UniProtKB/TrEMBL annotation:
Organism: Beta vulgaris subsp. vulgaris
Top-level taxon of the source organism: Eukaryota
InterPro entries associated with the record: CGLD27-like
Lineage per the UniProt record: Eukaryota, Viridiplantae, Streptophyta, Embryophyta, Tracheophyta
Keyword vocabulary terms for this entry: Membrane, Transmembrane, Transmembrane helix
UniProt KW Transmembrane helix keyword: yes
Keyword Endoplasmic reticulum appears in the UniProt entry: no
Protein name per Swiss-Prot or TrEMBL: DUF1230 domain-containing protein
Pfam families according to UniProt: CGLD27-like (PF06799)
Transmembrane intervals: 87-109, 121-142, 197-215
């Protein structure tokens, strides 16, 4: 018995996005694209171009998917898309290196006075390392956010020859589905990781600065109290105030003497 082509169900075509570590599928698009995340050669950049038959006037280096490929392989933006342990270890190594090689000498030689306060030097070095790591993560976040917005947007702003001839191209349905799939599953997790890193680094930097300010205030109060005690008695110099302190009976009846 022959099957009725109208009644027989047709399996839907899948839209595939494959990477070296995972594969995603989305229904019901009719095309399939194989998009390696990190191509090993320049020839593989053709895999990121628009599908055959799609007229895309955007230059190749300004297409969002090409910008994503360049960003994911560039320094230091590739750190954010890598393994979490490797990402954290690189940030830690960057902060420690800057704090020891730059922050520590500056804090040591820039301290006021003949004696160096070790607590201030350590806190200053630690704060400088955290600050540099925060700036690096902020730069990575801005780069990934820019590429993510261009992938998720339905239009692409590009320049043909220069800044004076900017154009806008509306993505086709296939290109928009491909870019949004890439932006949702690849860029958004990276942005979430960078946001969490920025929050943790901001809290750490605030704690370091607060400790440094609190320590300096306590040191100033201690020095002020010591100076006040030293002003009352000066070795080898007669002073009425110091004399009243040590010999109150000799100044009985004089103004300025507060009876106890």
């Amino acid at each position: 018995m022959a099957k009725n082509p109208i009644l027989s169900p047709k399996p839907p075509n899948l839209f595939f996005f494959s990477s070296p570590s995972s594969t995603f599928s989305l229904l019901p698009y009719q095309k399939s694209f194989n998009l390696p995340l990190k191509p090993n050669s320049s020839n593989s950049l053709r895999n990121y171009s628009t599908p055959p038959g799609t007229e895309c006037p955007v230059p190749l280096d300004q297409q969002p998917i090409i910008e994503y490929q360049n960003l994911s392989t560039s320094f230091p933006f590739s750190w954010a898309s890598g393994d979490l342990v490797e990402y954290a270890s690189r940030l830690l190594a960057t902060g420690l290196s800057f704090g020891l090689l730059v922050g520590l000498p500056v804090s040591w030689f820039g301290s006021v006075g003949s004696d160096h306060d070790q607590v201030k030097v350590v806190l200053g070095s630690l704060s400088s390392g955290v600050f540099v790591v925060t700036m690096a993560v902020l730069r990575m976040y801005l780069g990934w956010a820019y590429v993510g917005n261009r992938l998720l947007s339905a239009t692409v702003e590009y320049e043909e020859t220069g800044w004076y001839d900017g154009q806008i191209w509306v993505k086709t349905a296939e290109v928009l589905a491909r870019d949004r799939l890439l932006g949702s599953f690849q860029v958004k997790p990276v942005l979430g990781r960078l946001k969490n890193s920025l929050v943790a680094l901001a809290i750490s930097l605030f704690i370091c600065v607060a400790l440094l300010i609190n320590y300096e205030e306590s040191q100033k109060e201690l020095q002020k109290s010591s100076f006040e005690a030293a002003d009352r008695v000066v070795a080898g110099v007669y002073n009425d105030d110091s004399a009243r302190t040590f010999e109150p009976d000799a100044f009985c009846g004089e103004p300025g003497l507060v009876p106890e």
